[in-house]
Amino acid sequence: MLRCWCVGVLLFASSLAFAGNKSGPVRSETKSDSYKLPVTTSSPVARKKFETAMQKFEEYRIQETLQNLRAAIKADPNFTQSLILISRMSSDPVEQADTRERAKKLALKASPGERLLVRWLAGAQENDYLPAIAAMNDLLAKYPRDQRLAYLAGDWLMQQQRYEQAVMVLERAVTLFPNYAAALNDLAYGYADTGNFEKAFAVMDRYVALQPDQPNPHDSYGEILRMAGKLDAALEQYRMSIRIDPNFGSELGVADTYAVMGKEEEARDEYERAIVFAGSDADKVQRELQSAMTWIREDNHKQAERALDEVARHAHAAGLGQLEAETHRILGMYEPDTKAAMKHLQAAQDVLQEKHEISASDREEELARILRVAVTRATDDLDLDSASKAVEKLQTMAGRSRSQVIQLCYHGAAGAVLLAEKKPVEAIPELEENASDPLTMKLLWRAYTSTGAAPQAQAIAAKLAALNLPTVEQALVVPQFRATLVSQAGRP
Question: Are 293 and 274 in contact (CB under 8 A)?
Fold first, then answer.
């Protein structure tokens, strides 16, 4: 289970070191663990809870992981590493902010490596990417043989959509420890995201063989099979996960697979089941949002608008500003009338300005996505002035942030405007920077076609038609694009 298409979760696990001196935070290192990031704590209870949390994490039992991390903090309120992990794992924005600030204040009492860890993870949340990335690199250099640090870096790069770099880092983790299941899981996703499904399946086979009685290997295998277009096989894997552990929550995978198969009523039934296993308000609202998008796939405007409005209300009541803004953004993408769509997009921006607890990264990245959609709607309506103004805003954001999300939104938007200005040659390099987004891929196909780059057009068309992600972008673009290709193939 990774699901990089939705709000990502950045996790970290380290080997544990412990010393039982209760007079203050201490750490111990032996010859066997000195090459790993140490853990600073003075509580045996905290140590035990932390160790359990890491075991649950590597089984992808996130709620149990959080429960144990919170228990570790209760036993040792100064447990810096547990605090920063909670900040990154929790989907509660208030808890995220609280534990992040506490970790930053306590970091000076932790080890040098843990201070780098806090600087990295906190900086990533605060949209302060340059020092965050520098801290990550310093941490990897300091502990080059810590396989879990390599896994953390690979996982973070995956969430940043830097898949090729992630694969390199995760391959190193697997080289260090060939049977490290958590790294194998992410590595398989990395191969799949770069289109190398043969390698992805081989790694998943190793992962399943290592943990045949755990649900997550089958859940992950199901997701990767769906990405590869093997939808019936994906359902088999998800159902195997459910048989192994009915409480794990793989109903969500079944629902997502039904959604991309066009079986929207069945998908809604499964989303209802998946909501039962939601571990937080954010998880619940996210699953409600996935369910609402099935009405978009059916092109039932009335039901889609009603369902999305309800999701927005639920997100607002729960204080989940980013999800509320995302829901308005989706309404702005789907609304057929451009003026009404722009009102939804403005509502999304307004939500981000309200007094919701949202990390700086989440706020800025969601704003970038909103502006990217605004460019799409404006260029479709031939309002190049409005589109250009939105691109200028994105360019400013991209200039001050190294967030990959923001960078990709900017390049996709810049390419869209250039193409609308009938400058396909200039548009192509911009669009190629974001060639994994369905909206951009469709534009890139048009640009290649208009410039006579037939092989490139065919390659991007095949890639776009094969996308099976349960996202609104896929729902709005891919089914229609597949129909276009079929129509073109039938012409004399």
Answer: no
